[in-house]
Every structure is written in C-alpha cells, then in structure tokens.
Amino acid sequence: MSDTQDPRSPGFDIRAVNQTVIAEYRATGGALEKTLPGSRLVLLTTTGRRSGREHTTPLGYVTDGTSDAAAAEDQAGGENQAGGTAQTGGNGQAGRPGRIIVFASNMAAPGHPDWYRNLTANPKVTVELGTGRFAAQASTATGAERERLYQALVETMPGIRGHQEQVEREIPVVVLAELG
C-alpha cells in the first residue's frame, strides 16, 4: 500500500485501510507483504466506551522485557537494576515478548485516537501478535518510564519522531501487559 495517498488528504479512509491491513495480518499470521511490507504491527482490540462493541486497530510497537516490579520502580523514579530495555520484536514469536509498547499518536492529530479513549474506559484489551492472541491490561506510562519507552519507540519507528512536537497534548505511551 506504499502507493496509497497521504493519510491527511481529503477523502482518505483510514478505516478501510485498517480493515485491509487487519485482514492480511490475520491471513498471514502477521507477515504483511501487500499492504505494509516490512511493517511490524500488533493488532489491538478494545471495547468501545459508548457502544460496548469490539474495535481492532493495527499499531506499530516495540517490546519491553522489563518486569512489572522494575517498571513500578522506574515510574517511582528509581534506577532499573534489571537493565530492562525496550526491544523490537518479530511476528509469530513462540514465546511472549514481555510488555508491548504502543504510541497513541493518532497521526499527530490534536486529539487522542478512539482506541486510546476506549482503553482508558476499559483497560482490558486483546492483543494479536503474529499468530498469538492474548488478554492484556493496558496502562499509560508516565515519568521516567514514559520517556524511556518513548525513546525506544522513536528509535524503532523514526516516522513518529516529530509527532510529539506537532501537538500540544502529551501523546500517550501505552503499555500492554499480558494478563496471567
């Protein structure tokens, strides 16, 4: 889909694009070759805050091997002695990648994306990574943890680098932790 028009142009239908990406993702176990070749995506399913219906969104991501205890220490401003660093992850992994980190940029729009507003109302979500599917708890990173994870996101996905500077809101960095 590299020849697709600019997402900010009039008439661009992001929902139609997302449905095409989701269909290919599910058909290929996450190996996108037609719609977004070379992209590393996760599918996030949230529950609509008003409708109660499920909504699925494809999102770029990084993984973070930091344990929940180390992440809590990081949020409190302490040093992360475990050395947990955000890492990129591949599709179709047999094991779980740790926490999955996504960015609620909304293509640098002034408001949060619907999927983010949905998960703030109901943080229990479903994640599809490659051929795996699991329930997760979503939370918004803050403080030092947000900064560390934000840096990992922009290093991995340079196309989002300028998004924060284009908007007045702080773009949420969302942590998706598998429910046990």
What can you see in these coordinates?
The chain is α+β, with helices and mostly antiparallel strands and 180 residues long. It has one domain (38-178): Electron Transport, Fmn-binding Protein, Chain A (Pnp Oxidase, Chain A). It contains five helices and eight strands, in the order H-E-E-E-H-E-E-H-E-E-H-H-E. It has helices spanning 14-28, 68-75, 114-121, 143-156, 163-166, and strands at 41-47, 54-60, 62-64, 86-87, 99-103, 124-129, 132-140, 173-178. An eight-stranded antiparallel sheet has the order 2-1-6-7-8-5-3-4, with helices on both faces. It is globular and about 40 Å long. It starts with 13 loop residues before the first helix and ends with a strand.
What layout of secondary structure does this protein have?
Layout: H1 14-28, E1 41-47, E2 54-60, E3 62-64, H2 68-75, E4 86-87, E5 99-103, H3 114-121, E6 124-129, E7 132-140, H4 143-156, H5 163-166, E8 173-178
Antiparallel strand pairs: 1-2, 1-6, 3-4, 3-5, 5-8, 6-7, 7-8
List key phrases describing it:
180 residues; alpha+beta; Pnp Oxidase, Chain A; 8-stranded antiparallel beta sheet; 5 helices; 8 strands; 27% helix; 25% strand
